[in-house]
Specification:
Layout lengths: L19 E5 L2 E4 L4 E4 L2 H4 L8 H13 L11 H13 L6 E5 L2 H18 L7 E4 L8 H5 L18 E3 L7 H13 L4 E4 L3 E2 L5 E2 L2 H14 L2 E5 L23 E4 L11 E5 L1 H7 L18 H16 L2 H17 L5 E6 L2 E5 L10 H11 L2 E2 L6 E4 L7 H18 L1
Parallel strand pairs: 3-15, 5-6, 5-7, 7-10, 10-11
Antiparallel strand pairs: 1-2, 2-3, 4-12, 8-9, 11-12, 13-14, 14-16
Helix pairs in contact: 2-9, 3-9, 4-8, 6-7, 10-12
The structure holds pyridoxal-5'-phosphate.
GO molecular function: adenosylmethionine-8-amino-7-oxononanoate transaminase activity; dethiobiotin synthase activity; pyridoxal phosphate binding
Cofactor: pyridoxal 5'-phosphate
GO cellular component, one term: cytoplasm
Length: 411
């Protein structure tokens, strides 16, 4: 009996917990010799494939050179490479790179930067605007700006108040824009949003035009625009950033998951110059008070630098486009699903009658896919396929064959 307490796992249900010993490309290999297709990129992190040779080599080399160094007042080459690499491909207005360790902490950092900015400017702005169905992580601040529900009921008394803007469902965009306009006019520090796709909220899409208009509203009222591209970044939606599709540049950008190609944990929060300048002073009381022990860990940064090199030197967006086409063709051939949709490498749809996250159908599907050696993890009755960009036709066919069978059995 293992003593491990797993995340998002109800141990009382005694579901099997397979042990994975090796990964390569889109495949995971278990201790009992099964080859499992990773159709959700190990929870949305793996972009180029598992155990990517270039990233693995970078980690190995760096581990032998410099493993860890305090980052307050010190720097190192891998971190400088990552910062320079990001500056070269991210929007030029995002001039500053702050490191942390996970998507959740990149969001905490973004919120703290926004509040620090307003304090330095002497304006009493601290209200945060959020989008309905949003997800930004599981730490207290990240939960505060995310959708409330069964996930965070126990902690609700500790979560800070935010103002929630309705999700811009197709046809109801104006309601969202009007609500945002009113909330901004009333004064707010920042609006945090997942661009184009609300991931954990159920792979909900909305139009680039809406994103662009939301950004414009914030700009007009001086409300900082925080783009949480932790999931959507690194090609997931067909472009390096989802914001690109709307021609939008945020004031603050959160990146993690694919930042290291999905190999090791690392995150960055990129900020525009005015936000950095607001903290710039000879007064030590105004510095940015955030750090963690492993901020910009050199091994993690070496992995991120290797990821950036892959983006520079290999046709990643071409692979993304190809995977998108393959996904589209298979999605179009699926019968008996509701609301099939695709953006970039993400394909999603609903199955069954519609029961929400704790729908009985989810654990049944999970078990069904596990038996077929396909790693898919439904969000309630929403099923989505989001594989590493290297998945081949055969594996994708196997995934969709399992999906078709699951749908047929469920009818
Ligand atoms: C996964 C996710 C996070 C949290 O990232 P962690 O690394 O799991 O803390 C934040 N925002 C979005 C949009 C995410 O998808």
């Amino acid at each position: 009996m293992s003593s491990i307490w797993h995340p998002f796992t109800q141990h009382g249900l005694q579901e099997p917990i397979p042990c994975v010993v090796r990964g390569d490309g889109a495949a995971l290999h278990t201790a009992n010799g099964r080859r499992v297709i990773d159709a959700i990129s190990s929870w949305w992190v793996t972009t180029h494939g598992h155990a990517h040779p270039r990233i693995a080599a970078a980690i190995r080399d760096q581990a032998e050179r410099l493993d860890q160094i305090i980052f307050a007042g010190w720097t190192h080459e891998p971190a400088e490479q990552v910062a320079a690499g990001l500056r070269a491909i991210m929007p030029p207005a995002l001039t500053r790179v702050f490191f942390s360790d996970s998507g959740s902490t990149s969001v905490e950092v973004a919120l703290k930067m926004a509040l620090g900015y307003w304090l330095a400017r002497g304006e009493a702005r601290h209200r945060i605007l959020v989008m309905e169905h949003g997800y930004h992580g599981d730490t207290i601040g990240a939960m505060s700006v995310g959708q409330r529900g069964v996930f965070n009921r126990a902690y609700a008394p500790l979560l800070f108040d935010v103002e929630t803007i309705p999700y811009p469902a197709a046809g109801a965009e104006q309601t969202t824009l009007d609500a945002l306009e009113r909330a901004c006019a009333a004064g707010a520090a920042a609006f945090i949003v997942e661009p184009l796709v609300l991931g954990a909220g159920g792979m909900l899409f909305y139009a680039p035009e809406t994103l662009r208009r939301m950004r414009d509203i914030c700009a007009r009222h001086g409300v900082l625009f925080i783009a949480d591209e932790v999931m959507t970044g690194w090609g997931r939606t067909g472009t390096l950033l989802a914001c690109e599709q709307a021609g939008v540049v945020p004031d603050i950008l959160c990146l993690s998951k694919g930042l290291t190609g999905g190999a090791v944990p690392l995150a960055v929060t990129m900020a525009s110059e005015p936000i950095f300048e607001a903290h710039w002073s000879t007064d030590r009381a105004r510095m940015f008070f955030h750090s963690s022990s492993y901020t910009a860990n050199p091994i993690a940064c070496a992995a991120a630098a290797a990821n950036l090199a892959i983006w520079r030197e290999e046709p990643v967006l071409e692979r993304v486009r190809l995977l998108g086409e393959r996904q589209a063709a298979r999605l179009a051939a699926l019968d008996g699903v509701r609301n099939p949709r695709r953006l970039g490498t993400i394909a999603a749809f609903e199955i069954g009658a519609g029961e929400g996250y704790l729908a009985d159908i989810a654990p049944r599907l999970l078990a069904f896919f596990r038996e077929r050696d396909v790693l898919l993890r439904p969000l309630g009755d929403t099923l989505y396929v989001m594989p590493p960009y290297c998945i081949d036709e055969t594996d994708l066919d196997t995934v969709y064959a399992a999906v078709s069978e699951a749908i047929a059995r469920n009818q």
